[in-house]
Amino acid sequence: MTTAALEPRAGRRCHTMLNSLHATHYFSPDLGRELGAVGITHPRAVNFAVRAAALGPVGPGPVAAAFYNYKYELVARHVPAVWETAAPSRVLAARTRAVDATLRRLLGEEAVASAEMAEAARLALRAAEACSREARPLYAAHADLPVPEEPHLAYWHAATLLREHRGDGHLAVLMSAGLDGLEALVTHTATGKGMTPKWVFSTRGWTQQEWDAATERLRERGLLEASGELSEQGAAQRAEIEQETDRLDRAPYEHLGADGVARLTELGGAFARAALTAGAFPADLIGKA
């Protein structure tokens, strides 16, 4: 019996659906409530703590390196001080409680307990079996965490593994392309698919002056037009970055197989759309301005 070949962008489409649900907790009031209960209240400290906790009580250097596009000085303002407030194990437990509450609120109890959720968890975990730890610090750290027993939490955990696996590879591609963290943000925003400058400034720590300087560097290299839009060269570079990221992230989806990827994309898409409809993300998060 032959199986269908995996389409070149099938893994990327599947990842987009999984990542959309993973990302809901970053914007959830449940996260602020649960982290606040363990003493972490500053929004940036919450963000650094929940994503970096799997690494252990690290300092600002490893966090800035693994996150790539955050300003180091912003990271150092909260890390490692955040671990004095709550140890990584307490942060991870609080994150799990927040994710549980968030998914139940956004998707509803019926979806959380559904056969489709259990199926999505099985498929996503199977795909994650083929992820590799080499040169992927955030994936490797999360891969050492136990898989939750409840299907909706297992699904979120698997989505996190696949998200961080692709993300770690993506950063290597950005470095190879010669884009620093802020330049990568500027070019992503210029595609219309990245965060608006407003959100970049408030969450990543960069200023308008630094954004303008990065924009000018990119213009001088021929990657942006005077208008701020991507040039033909810049658009080609972004396309190459995504294609190379796809290549580095192909193994999990090849392991799952074309039929499994299609089914996981279908299931994940339904969950992601439900979360979006329920108001999971700020209306002004994505765009060029």
Characterize the structure shown:
The structure is a single chain. With 289 residues, the chain is mainly α. The protein has 17 helices and no strands. Helix 1 (10-23) packs parallel to helix 17 and helix 9 crosses helix 17 (258-277). It is globular, with a radius of gyration of 19 Å.
List keywords for this structure.
single chain, 289 residues, mainly alpha, 17 helices, 69% helix, 0% strand, globular
| Residues in helix, % | 55-70%
The profile of the biggest β sheet is: none
For the secondary structure, the number of strands is 0
Given the helix and strand composition, which structural class is it? mainly alpha
SSE order: HHHHHHHHHHHHHHHHH
Q: What is the arithmetic mean of pLDDT?
A: 97
**First-to-last CA distance:** 51 Å
Unreliable stretches (pLDDT < 50, length at least 5) are none
Radius of gyration: 19 Å
Estimate the global geometry from the Cα principal axes. globular
Number of helices: 17
Question: Strand content of the residues, in percent?
Answer: under 5%
